[in-house]
Write a structure and sequence with these properties.
Shape: globular
CATH superfamily of the domain at 3-22 and 177-462: TonB-dependent receptor, beta-barrel domain
Structural class: mainly beta
Mean pLDDT: 85
Helix content: under 10%
Number of helices: 2
Radius of gyration: 25 Å
CATH topology of the domain at 3-22 and 177-462: Maltoporin, Chain A
Length: about 475
């Protein structure tokens, strides 16, 4: 049996924006300049509204917010997103644990589970497991390396993807803020429950080059018992500008996270001791790598374009005692065998690649400045899901060993996406903006492989 779906979506967007601006009876001598936002060292504002036009993107008429991370009065060492984006209206945050490993945010009415209602990006490209088939953000960048965060809520993010919640883009530091060819910075943080974080960054700017890289190690025992974790992350970006109009950037990120899962508690148990845990053999291990090449070309003073090619290699592994019924049952030793019960093993392997091209240009209608932006997208995602319910080992450490090396479920999920969008800012008079926009999506999804094993050891297959 073959499972395959194709969906085409055409969406039109017509936001209106009113703004105060002085009118003039004679506009023949007026020259419109590109909007520039300056954030100086003396600025203490952590929340700003994104200007109408930034780079190759149109933000006019949208519910947009810009977070300047260095001005945030909050705990960025452990990625406490509740404090970082607390001033953005309409945002709901889940804190699954105190590690800051998995950030969960959403707008009102949507689920914050691993930010799957948001199009999650880093430096403008996707970093979620599969933006269309399985859009969970198992990786989020270390906020000590983030320069600013762009958030667009709701339908205003149609130029990025089909997620209902909007788009969040983590813009990492690239070394352009440094004034020397080589600078080093380091931060060490200690805290309660064994928290220790070491952050080491280095970057510089010389001639036509600028670069930045960091290494980060964070570990802690966790507030609850059996909730220890560690994270190792590294990132490097290099930018070359052969001319004033052309820039090209290469970057690579690698992250490895392993956390112990203490398991859930019922209300009565929480009232007795909210730190207790009924699980000590449950683990999640995430290895995430992203790579990207970005190039921007300024065609003229009023026109520019950008091309991005990106890829993702991610593994999401888990092992633990998760009985089908009675999930809160204590994990005890089987008196017949003298061992713990066999654990479940789950592996997801994500292999994605994509590319996006965007162009933006200003033009005039009766001496009034207008702006048009268009873009194309191509994306391919593949997820290989391996499941061995109750076929793992009976040990206590992290391991992915399974009985007879046989997976109960072995399924490949494939998705493909082509998209085209266009948006135009029409300026009517001195106070009115009319911004029509459209996005066309073509989606394809399929699945094949072994779904389960029935009595006799025969597999039930989903075949392509």
């Amino acid at each position: 049996m073959k499972i395959k779906k194709r969906v085409s979506v055409l969406v039109f967007l017509f936001p209106l924006s009113l703004f105060a601006q002085e009118t003039a009876t004679d506009t023949s001598h007026i020259k419109y300049l590109e909007t520039i936002t300056l954030v100086g060292k003396t600025s203490r504002s952590d929340l700003q509204q994104i200007p109408e036009i930034v780079g190759i993107a149109i933000y006019a008429g949208k519910k947009s917010s810009l977070i300047v991370v260095k001005n945030v009065e909050g705990n960025i060492t452990t990625n406490v997103m509740r404090q970082v984006i607390s001033k953005i209206p309409g945002i709901h945050v889940w804190e699954n644990d105190g590690s800051g490993v998995q950030i969960g945010i959403a707008t009102r009415g949507l689920s914050p589970n691993r930010s799957w209602e948001f199009n999650v990006r880093q430096n403008g490209y996707d970093i979620a497991a599969d933006p269309f088939g399985y859009p969970e953000a198992y990786y989020n960048p270390q906020l000590q390396a983030v320069q600013r965060i762009e958030v667009i809520r709701g339908h205003g993010a149609l130029q990025y993807g089909s997620q209902f919640g909007g788009m969040i883009n983590y813009i990492l530091r690239d070394g352009s803020e440094f004034k020397r060819p080589f600078q080093v910075e380091t931060q060490q943080t200690v805290g309660s429950y064994g928290l220790y974080n070491v952050y080491l960054g280095a970057g510089g700017q010389a001639g036509k080059w600028n670069y930045y890289g960091f290494l980060d190690r964070r570990q802690a025992d966790g507030y609850r018992y059996n909730s220890a974790y560690f994270t190792n992350a590294g990132f490097i970006t290099v930018t070359y500008r052969p001319t004033q109009k052309l820039s090209s950037t290469l970057e690579l990120m690698r992250s490895h996270v392993r956390s112990q899962q203490p398991g859930g508690l019922q209300d009565d148990a929480i009232r007795i001791d909210n730190r207790q845990s009924l699980r000590h053999r449950n683990f999640m291990d995430i290895e995430w790598s992203t790579m990207a090449w970005r190039s921007r070309y300024d065609i003229g003073s009023n026109s520019r374009m950008e091309l991005k090619i990106f890829g993702l290699i991610g593994d999401r592994n888990s092992v633990g005692f998760l009985p089908a019924a009675g999930l809160l049952t204590p994990d005890t030793i089987d008196l017949r065998t003298g061992n713990f019960n066999a654990r479940n093993v789950n592996i997801d392997r994500y292999r994605n690649w994509g590319g996006e091209w965007r162009w933006i240009s200003d033009y005039s209608i009766k001496k009034s400045k207008q702006t048009i932006s268009v873009g194309l997208r191509r994306f391919t995602g593949n997820t290989n899901r391996l499941v061995a319910d109750g076929k793992g080992d009976s040990g206590t450490d992290y391991t992915l060993r399974i009985e007879n090396d046989t997976w109960i479920r072995d399924v490949d999920f494939a998705s493909a996406n082509y998209a085209f969008f266009a948006e135009n800012v029409f300026r009517v008079g001195g106070r009115l903006l009319v911004i029509p926009g459209m996005r066309y999506e073509w989606l394809s999804g399929g699945a094949w492989g072994q779904h389960t094993i029935v009595n006799g050891g025969l597999g039930v297959n989903i075949l392509s």
